[in-house]
Design goal:
single chain; mainly alpha; 3-stranded antiparallel sheet; two-stranded antiparallel sheet; 11 helices; 10% strand
């Protein structure tokens, strides 16, 4: 845990001209908010992103900056306001600029989404739940910060993407943002063996040996979930742990 007051700030005056030029070239609003704050104050926290700028999911704003090729250092600190752990961010060295990622994510065409729907069906990649296509979002299987758009201007390969609902996308985002591979190693092969990239065939989740099953009770099935939940509550057990116990019996 870093001492917040001892973190080296990186305001505008400390930056290499090449890094500063890249920072000033970014136009995307959310990334621009983060960049301008660090340029002025030398650091920004998740708490400030939430309280000052109203972002419900501050790490997403941080990812926007990184997806534009700008390197950031993540510091784990204690909030002087709440006493809770939070992330704080400063610019990293100019040598860490992610070449080939300047400009951020490409916009996906309606045709590309249709290609994905034809390949995978109108369902969430993690839960398998069938959904109206308007609720499904396109996401890179391997985080953009790790792999970027490897093929440059070549046609996008649907096999490198997946369809997720908003809840699954947030869960993947949170896990990836705390994974050592995204933060330090940037090894695409590690990602390829992860549940978040390949739920069909994986051997770890964020570098921890894990197995995961997403189960959704829909319609008349909801009553069975409610019954399991009541049993778990009667035994003062979290429902996930209770289901695991039932499977072992």
């Amino acid at each position: 845990m870093a001492d917040f007051d001892k973190i080296k700030r990186t305001p505008r005056s400390t930056l290499d001209p090449a890094l500063l030029a890249l920072c000033l070239s970014i136009e995307a609003k959310r990334a621009r908010t983060v960049i301008d704050h660090i340029l002025e104050h030398g650091i920004i926290t998740n708490e400030e992103l939430s309280d000052l700028y109203g972002y419900d999911h501050p790490p997403r704003a941080i990812r926007d900056v990184r997806e534009n090729g700008i390197p950031l250092v993540t510091h784990n600190v204690t909030s002087p306001k709440t006493g809770r752990r939070m992330g704080a961010y400063t610019f990293d060295d100019v040598s860490k600029i992610k070449r080939g990622r300047i400009g951020g994510r490409k916009a996906f065409s309606k045709k590309f989404k249709q290609d994905l729907l034809e390949m995978y069906g109108s369902k969430d990649a993690f839960t398998g739940e069938g959904l109206d296509e308007r609720y499904l979002q396109i996401d890179h299987r391997i985080p953009y910060e790790v792999i970027g758009d490897e093929n440059g201007n070549a046609a996008l390969d649907p096999r490198e993407f997946m369809l997720l609902d908003a809840s699954s996308n947030r869960a993947k985002s949170w896990s990836c943002e705390h994974c050592d591979n995204l933060l330090k190693k940037h090894d695409p092969d590690i990602c390829r063996r992860c549940f978040w990239a390949s739920p069909e065939d994986y051997d770890h989740i964020a570098e921890t040996e894990s197995r995961r099953v997403e189960v959704v009770w829909t319609g008349d099935e909801a009553q069975y979930y409610d019954s399991l939940k009541k049993e778990a509550e009667d035994k003062s057990i979290e429902i996930a742990a209770f289901i695991k116990r039932k499977l072992r019996e």
